[in-house]
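Q: Given only this backbone (307 positions), what sequence would you predict?
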């Protein structure tokens, strides 16, 4: 059951990638074809190694650029137990003056939280440490993710000053802070998910077999301290980066209320936040209007001079 739900979560989130420009490059199992003419594609770069397990990311950089490029980092969904870095809706941004990275992280069947956020932060630090080598602008990093990836990018955004979530996977002299966060329908407070689920919800969130329970290593209602440590809301402070939060009001996997909670906490702290409800959308969306909002958000915060 959990495997099927993970596939649903990952697959529906990938709906947003369907319809990207089709052309010659389509590595096996890596999502829609994308034209990489003029793009340097560096796949499976090892950003850390944990207990002999290499952690890898893909990095795409336009070959011609007059200056270091702002970077958009995609963090995939899949209920923290599935998914892969191979498919990302960020690829079209390579034609708009951005570099793009897509990362893998340890899944919940391999290691429980906080392993996942440790990995994400390690990847950001590695990218910043190698910014000069790959022509990246270390002062303009943004993160974008959907579903479980939305949870992780939100946590990256709010925990930039939280030492206990950094881990020790290398490049600790570098910052894991980012300058912009785009969160697509990510969970934010696991304890409230069941109470606000739609009648046709596909997940029993309070079950010990739910994706959230597997992430923290036990039934969420019996592990409230662990759940609090996994919540982006726990760490919200006024110096957090700007957020764009997008969520379908018909989402029967991650309740829309989860994004309402995060948006309210950010607003209360004085953080710049834009919250867009996608009317009629479920767990996954896309299209020109949605992508335009994402592009305008990143352009505003990653292409402007650093503060």
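A: Predicted residues:
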């Amino acid at each position: 059951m959990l495997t099927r739900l993970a596939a649903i979560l990952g697959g529906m989130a990938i709906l947003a990638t369907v319809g990207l420009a089709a052309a010659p490059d389509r590595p096996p199992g890596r999502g829609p074809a994308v034209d990489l003419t003029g793009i340097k594609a560096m796949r499976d770069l090892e950003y850390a190694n944990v207990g002999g397990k290499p952690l890898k990311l893909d990095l795409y950089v336009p070959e011609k650029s007059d200056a270091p490029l702002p970077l958009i980092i995609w963090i995939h969904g899949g209920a923290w137990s599935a998914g892969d870095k191979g498919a990302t809706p960020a690829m079209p941004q390579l034609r708009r003056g951005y570099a793009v990275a897509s990362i893998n992280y340890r899944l919940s069947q391999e290691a429980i939280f906080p392993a996942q956020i440790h990995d994400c932060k390690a990847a950001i630090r590695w990218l910043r440490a190698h910014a000069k080598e790959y022509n990246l602008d270390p002062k303009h990093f943004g993160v974008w993710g959907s579903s479980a990836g939305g949870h992780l990018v939100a946590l990256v955004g709010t925990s930039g000053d939280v030492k206990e979530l950094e881990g020790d996977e290398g490049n600790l002299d570098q910052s894991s802070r980012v300058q912009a966060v785009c969160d697509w329908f990510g969970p934010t407070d696991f304890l409230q998910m069941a109470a606000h689920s739609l009648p046709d919800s596909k997940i029993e969130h309070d079950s010990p077999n739910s994706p959230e329970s597997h992430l923290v290593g036990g039934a969420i209602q019996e592990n409230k301290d662990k759940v609090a440590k996994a919540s982006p809301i726990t760490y919200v402070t006024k110096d957090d980066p700007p957020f764009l939060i997008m969520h379908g009001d018909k989402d029967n996997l991650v309740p829309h209320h989860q994004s309402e909670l995060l948006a309210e906490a950010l607003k209360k702290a004085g953080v710049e936040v834009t919250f867009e409800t996608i009317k009629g959308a479920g767990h996954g969306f896309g299209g020109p209007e949605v992508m335009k909002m994402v592009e305008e958000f990143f352009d505003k915060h990653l292409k402007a001079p650093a503060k």
